[in-house]
Specification:
Layout: H1 3-13, H2 18-25, E1 32-38, E2 41-46, H3 47-64, E3 73-77, H4 82-93, E4 97-100, H5 107-117, E5 121-124, E6 132-134, E7 155-159, E8 169-173, H6 174-182, H7 184-190, E9 203-205, H8 213-224, E10 229-231, H9 238-248, E11 252-255, H10 257-273, H11 277-291, H12 296-307, H13 309-314, E12 322-325, H14 332-340, E13 345-351, E14 355-359, H15 365-368, E15 375-376, E16 381-385, E17 388-392, E18 399-402, E19 405-408, E20 415-423, E21 429-434, E22 439-440, E23 446-447, H16 449-456, E24 461-470, E25 476-484, H17 489-505, E26 514-518, H18 532-541, E27 546-548, H19 565-580, H20 599-613, H21 628-639
Helix pairs in contact: 2-6, 3-4, 6-8, 10-14, 11-12, 11-14, 19-20, 19-21
């Protein structure tokens, strides 16, 4: 039995409470709890030293809140670090329930959470009415109480991310928290890479905020029960993250898709600047072939130590052994590159109400690159209704707040996640988006914004979002709004060509009608995703301005340059003009989106082109034909 399995077995038979989690989290008193650097010098605090501070803070807090009813909520509004951990555990030990507040949320959202929960006190460096602020330093001032018997509370309160509006308050008891920790046993059983060391240590980057379910459950609580070390960041700049990972030899990084996309973009830009693009691509092909063989871990070793040793040294260091992305869809090029250079990246899924629910754990890179979020953890049961995932289990929340009132909930009642998730015959799950966010495409097809954004995402884009917007014609269609990294004419021209090319390759029912560039930064949610509802408000208020991306007028594929293209294209253009009734038609004019054609006119178009060139166009087997260039390429191919 391994070290981890022994601890998990003990936890499984221990009292199911938060006090049990605390006892196990601070068993390894000589191990480093946190590491950070100041001017290149690494500092640390052990679990033992942190425990002494927690016990002193518990006694101090009990005195400060002597007239405050036990079981009442106390807010935590602090960044990741020792003060956060001391506040969290001291609130529980003194008989109160910690309310975990988002330090990136707007002021009104924080105040709303305080009012909703009825929290009268707040551990924070910043004041928020209506709660009384207590500075974290005050908890270390009064340790006069030599005897303090903990009166443990057994609940924590989390706030949802608020991507669709007002944050919601969710309550977990100790049983649910412990059940989430025990899910780490399933991960360990199916992929022992998660227990990998580097130079004798296992260190996690404390990138995810501890107030978030991903950072709290999968990072802080999972790994503190095994006495592992968390590395604090001086800032969230890409340079700071890269330097910190290298300096501390970080082994585990759990982060949001934006993090991994940023790393990917940085590597691609460096390769382009140094003229190493072809070498990078050649190395990726070889690496992925090796990682998809019978010995994927050996392939990853070769990628890490031979093929991409220098790339890793410049990116996140050579210590990285296990990576998880959660909170949204990953770009396909990100999955390919990060896994290809030897950083095993696994895609996961969860939400505040149900905790961490699944993670892809297969060893072969090709299986991870499919975009699966893995199989649901055994602690949860599932069912599917209209593509929506429903779950129940003891890792689910047991109460919530509504209009200032606490409402109890049985974790074994079915919960509708409202996430569109497909389960394939092998049991693996694939996330396509939120029901509330789905777009209406052609023929009533429902389109996932997450899917489209993963298709269009690239290193030239800072942020992007797909929403339903009215077009000049008066119809409401799905459009893509992009915040480009560079705004010079050459960069925008290249980006436009890439985006429209990707759009043309999608099935017609999944294409966006228009592509726009945003003149201002797009509004982000607390999970660093574009907030579609807020974006629409900004557009209506005129605080965000859009500029239509120009459609490339050139030929879109090499096949169009074959001999005969210039002879047949003018005839096709004339048919397009005749059928659509639009005089201005270019080789890349889309029959539906640019020329306003409908299904009946489209069949007339196909019929007239078939007659003009004496061919039979079989739409059931033909590729997507929407522009004059599409038809020209098809006809030339058929004539070969």
């Amino acid at each position: 039995m391994t070290f981890y399995e022994k601890i998990l077995q003990e936890l499984e038979h221990a009292p199911q409470s938060l006090s049990t989690v605390y006892d196990y989290a601070f068993r390894f008193q000589n191990e480093a709890l946190f590491e950070w650097d100041e001017n290149g010098i690494i500092h640390s605090i052990t679990y033992g030293a942190a425990k002494m501070r927690i016990e002193a803070a518990s006694a101090a807090l009990a005195v400060l809140l002597a007239d405050y009813p036990k079981g009442s909520p106390v807010g935590i509004y602090l960044p990741n670090g020792i003060d956060w951990v001391i506040s969290f555990w001291s609130i529980l030990r003194s008989g109160y329930r910690p309310l975990l507040l988002n330090t990136n949320a707007p002021v009104d959202a924080v105040e709303s959470c305080l009012l909703e929960s009825g929290a009268h006190y707040l551990l924070s460096e910043k004041e928020f009415p209506p709660s009384v602020r207590i500075l974290p330093s005050r908890l270390q001032e009064s340790s006069a109480l030599k005897q303090f018997d903990p009166t443990w509370a057994d609940e924590i309160i989390l706030c949802t991310s608020g991507t669709t509006g007002k944050p919601r308050l969710i309550v977990f008891d100790g049983k649910a928290v412990l059940a989430q920790i025990l899910n780490s046993g399933y991960v360990l059983k199916n992929n022992r890479t998660i227990a990998s060391f580097y130079h004798g240590h296992l260190k996690l980057l404390a990138f995810l905020p501890f107030y978030h379910i991903f950072g709290l459950s999968a990072v802080l609580l999972w790994f503190s029960c095994f006495g592992r070390t968390f590395v604090l960041l001086p800032s969230l700049s890409p340079e700071s993250i890269s330097r910190t990972c290298r300096l501390h030899e970080v082994t585990h990084i759990f982060a949001l898709p934006l993090f991994w996309n940023t790393v990917t973009d940085s590597i691609l830009r460096t390769a382009k600047r140094t003229g190493q693009e072809q070498k990078l691509e050649k190395g990726l092909k070889l690496s992925l072939a090796l990682q998809n063989s019978w010995f994927p871990r050996a392939g990853r070793w070769i990628a890490r130590n031979i093929l991409f040793k220098s790339v890793q040294e410049q990116a996140l260091g050579r210590g990285v052994r296990f990576c998880i992305s959660g909170g949204g869809a990953l770009r396909s090029d990100t999955l390919r590159l990060i896994n290809g250079i030897g950083y095993p990246l696994y895609n996961g899924y969860g939400m505040t109400e149900i905790g961490i629910a699944s993670v892809e754990l297969r060893h072969k890179a090709s299986e991870r690159m499919e975009g699966s979020i893995g199989k649901l953890f055994p602690s949860l049961e599932s069912r599917f209704s209209s593509d929506s995932l429903w779950v129940r289990g003891f890792t689910c929340y047991n109460a919530f707040y509504e209009n200032g009132k606490r409402i109890e909930r049985n974790p074994m009642d079915w919960f509708d996640t409202k996430d569109c998730i497909e389960q394939r015959p092998n049991g693996y799950l694939y996330f396509s988006g939120r029901q509330d966010d789905m777009l209406n495409g052609e023929n009533g097809e429902r389109i996932s914004p997450a899917y489209l954004e993963s298709v269009f995402g690239c290193s030239q884009i800072s942020q992007l979002c797909t929403v339903m917007l009215p077009l000049p014609s008066g119809t409401v269609k799905p459009v893509l709004i992009v915040e480009p990294r560079q705004r010079n004419s050459y960069a925008l021209g290249t980006l436009s060509e890439d985006l429209y090319s990707k759009n043309e390759k999608l099935p017609s029912s999944y294409r966006v009608a228009e592509i726009y560039y945003s003149e201002e930064p797009l509004p982000l949610s607390t999970t660093m995703k574009v907030q579609a509802s807020e974006l629409k408000k900004c557009l209506a208020a005129g605080t965000i301005h859009l500029r239509k991306a120009s459609r490339p007028e050139g030929v879109s594929t090499e096949a169009l340059y074959q001999e005969g293209y210039e002879e047949i294209l003018p005839r096709i253009l004339e048919i397009f003009r005749s059928v659509s009734g639009v005089d201005s038609v270019s080789p890349n004019s889309h029959f539906r989106y640019d020329l306003g054609g409908d299904s009946l006119l489209y069949f007339s178009l196909v019929e007239q082109i078939s007659e003009a060139f004496s061919v039979s166009i079989d739409l059931s087997s033909a590729p997507e034909l929407n522009t004059p260039s599409d038809f020209a390429a098809y006809l030339l191919k058929e004539s070969d």
